Amino acid sequence: MGIVDSCEVAQENSQTYIQIQQNKSSKLQKEDKVIENEIINIQNQQQQNRKKIYEVYQDGSIYNGQVINGIRDGQGIFTYNEGGSYFVGEWKNGNIHGYGILYYPNKQIAYEGEWQKNKFNGNGIVYNEKIKVIEFINYKNFDQIGDYWEKYEGKFQDDQKEGLGIIKFSSGEKFVGNFKKDSANGTGVFYFKDGNIIIGNWVDNILQQELI
């Protein structure tokens, strides 16, 4: 086989490969479209099955929102009987699930973000209702934070800080780092008001080692 023949064969193989890939891509697009249409049909069916109710329970709590077959599902507002705090957001199979906002009784936001089965799960922000002011935070021992924090923004798992997050303090300082089981665990950075920083390792909220 000459050089010209080899080039022609290579070109034919290349064109065949491109055609196969195009066919695969077209098939995948069709499959994606079928799945997308099925999801839309399910969502439309659920929307048709949803009704809106207003229920007052024996303990004084109230639900005002959507249900499917009598079970909370869709958008809804739940007012708790204790103090008047309330939740506005998404429900699924009777549980808070999806995006939602929890409010303190004074209508200040307590938590906004993702939920799974009535708990903070995923990305979210929790706000301190009763902030106390302090000049400096003891970055070596976060167990002493008390109410000297303004908000935590980051990852949650089952109502606890879990993963990467940021705590902003009333002193104007902040901590950016890793959390596990609601405590600072792993590498983190503490930012002072004057712009200086401390990089270190924390275990259960206690600074174990300063790296910088």
Q: What layout of secondary structure does this protein have?
A:
Elements: H1 3-49, E1 50-56, E2 62-68, E3 71-79, E4 86-92, E5 95-103, E6 109-116, E7 119-127, E8 149-157, E9 160-169, E10 174-180, E11 183-191, E12 197-203, E13 206-210
Antiparallel strand pairs: 1-2, 2-3, 3-4, 4-5, 5-6, 6-7, 7-8, 8-9, 9-10, 10-11, 11-12, 12-13
Shape: flat
Radius of gyration: 27 Å
Strand content: over 45%
Helix content: 10-25%
Structural class given helices, strands, pairing?
A: alpha+beta
Global mean pLDDT? 87
End-to-end Cα distance, whole Å, is: 67 Å
Q: How many discrete structural domains?
A: 2
Organism: Ichthyophthirius multifiliis (White spot disease agent)
Keywords: Kinase, Methyltransferase, Repeat, Transferase
EC number: 2.1.1.137, 2.1.1.43
Protein name: Protein kinase domain protein
